[in-house]
């Protein structure tokens, strides 16, 4: 599975239950990336959506046994999520937040698609700084683009770092010992 997230310069991802800055081009990128696949969302993030995301299998995780959402699959544990996606193509399964759900599933992710927004609005919810993590390496990065209102943003792909050789090949040196490949079987 993969994760997809839009982060501000300080890795902030949300404030008071919503995203402080939404870039329309990033929303289109999100739709393009996730369409035809599976999205896994926490109940709070789902409530910030306009509704069930069309053309995707929506899985919502909550502890609330009474929670329902027409058109979505509601589950109550990580195990139930894994059972629901067991026959889906893992390349098309996306963890879409928020912070608590990223934290639950990041150890199982192979790639993280990060839109970096060059701004620092107030945030109360953060993503882990992947640039400071020995577990993740920046694999690809688009050119930096700019919205009509002048906000700069860059699409980045992080891959689970499988060792120093790969990191060097990607142009990043590492100072820590290589971590074992914890990538789950596809
Ligand atoms: N920038 C981005 O790309 C992006 C993407 C997504 C979200 N966000 C932001 O992230 C923030 C929300 O993140 P959040 O961490 O507060 O909330 P969240 O992860 O969206 O949802 C948290 C809820 O998920 C349920 N949950 C989490 N772990 C569970 C488990 N192990 N078992 C059962 N249920 C579980 C619980 O629901 P119940 O309370 O119902 O039990 C919990 O309260 C918002 O500000 C949102 O805008 C940003």
Characterization of this structure:
The protein is an alpha/beta fold. The protein has one domain: Dihydrofolate Reductase, subunit A, CATH 3.40.430. The protein has five helices and eleven strands, in the order E-E-H-E-H-E-E-H-E-H-E-E-E-E-E-H. Strands 1, 3, 4, 5, 6, 7, 9, 10 and 11 form a nine-stranded mixed β-sheet that branches. Strands 2-8 form a two-stranded antiparallel sheet. A hairpin with a 5-residue loop joins strand 10 and strand 11. The longest helix is centred in the N-terminal third of the chain and has 11 residues, at 24-34. 30% of the residues are buried. Mean pLDDT is 90; it is low at 164-186. The structure holds NADP nicotinamide-adenine-dinucleotide phosphate. NADP nicotinamide-adenine-dinucleotide phosphate binds next to strand 1, strand 2, helix 2 and helix 4.
- How many independent structural domains? 1
Shape assignment: globular
C-alpha-based Rg, rounded = 17 Å
Heterogens: NADP nicotinamide-adenine-dinucleotide phosphate
**Which blocks of ≥5 consecutive residues have pLDDT under 50?**
164-186
Q: What is the CATH superfamily classification? A: Dihydrofolate Reductase, subunit A
Q: In whole angstroms, how far apart are the ends?
A: 8 Å
The CATH first-level class comes to: Alpha Beta
CATH topology: Dihydrofolate Reductase, subunit A
